[in-house]
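Hi,

I'm pasting everything inline rather than attaching a file, because the server keeps stripping attachments. The sequence lines come first, and each chain or strand is labelled.
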Amino acid sequence: MTVPGTRNIGLPLMNLVRLKGVPTLKQLHLEERLLRTSSDNWCIINDGTNDPTVVMGISGKPMELLEIDSVLQDEIPVIRRFTGGGTVIVDQGTIFVTFICNKDAVPGLQSYPRPIMSWSSLIYRKVFQGIGDFGLRENDYVLGNLKFGGNAQSIIKNRWVHHTSFLWDYEISNMAYLKLPKRAPEYRQARSHLEFVCRMKDYIPRSNFIDRTIDAVGSHFLVRSVELEAIKYPSDTKFKPSSGLLMKQELEETAIDSHTGIAVSQSLQL
Amino acid sequence: MASKLWASRAASYFRISLFHRGFATVIKDFKYADSHEWAKVDGSSATVGITDHAQDHLGDVVYVELPEVGAAVKQGASFGAVESVKATSDINSPISGKVVEVNEELKNSPGLVNASPYENGWIIKVEMDNSDELKSLMDSDQYSKFCEEEDAKH
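And the predicted assembly:
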């Protein structure tokens, strides 16, 4: 199926994979596998994920980023993903859009973080044209000064991935699992999560967002739908994903360290 | 040229500066890979890092993923990564061999990669398998030209 009305002459091919409710770890493994073993361009859209999950970037430290006691008590899974960037909590209200591209897929695009981020913002600028005051502020997608999408990337020799988790909707209670991060963009200005983010559902219907995104992609690529089960992987390549679930034990040890640290600093104050 | 149109449109819309320094520094006797890593040869071993051109384009490095000492590295293959601007970027080895030392300073000071890419920001030291591999790397003049051409194309 090609998107009707696209100017497809001479455009590179983009395989579109539409998913719904796929678990986050499975999605991350798919993305990393396609990044490292495929030579095609891919757009993956996962419409929601089944269970609330915390997803940290590659260098994320649970003690700094999470309210560990609540996470452990409520048995919220915590994943460390293969891309950079910050911490999100994702659930059925999250829409994931991922681009996995060869470095020459976009003419004139240098395979570095900032150019790729700028290019991606052009896609979403088109999506939100006439709908909201869309912007890219310090690597976040915003409507006005409210963040509605978190971005991250991984860049290898000849390919890159840029993925976004969009806050279609969110549970206020889930935000309580996340601490205010030490590394935050200036425009956040120490706002709490709830004052800093907005729900996309207040601006655009869910299916409309997905359709408009596919349409915007179609102005840069010749889009072809591919079913997940139909994806073929080269048989001769070894691949081991680096995204993984943090073990309960690791989180418990972090919680103990955190409590010990508090007790020591309190006793020093006596 | 259409390929630059989106870049300048995005830049003016979002007021992003797309300009980097007009030149990137290189060190005369080092060897360079087209993926922007350098090798400083010392007998049968080499120190490896990323170039000034790379660190400038990557942005502030906040984390470096280092290999284990003893790990094998292969010319052109990834051995680690840097994180900057929400991106992990692979670091590829310019030569094959065995990692004999990693720069532990980078664990607490990843910004050394930006501040001192050719000295204090070194990443690994490798016992080389085959010094003939160095012949496929660029010298400083070739690498400078390569960077200019790459920047001009985009």
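The radius of gyration of chain A is 19 Å.

If the labels don't parse on your end, tell me and I'll reformat.
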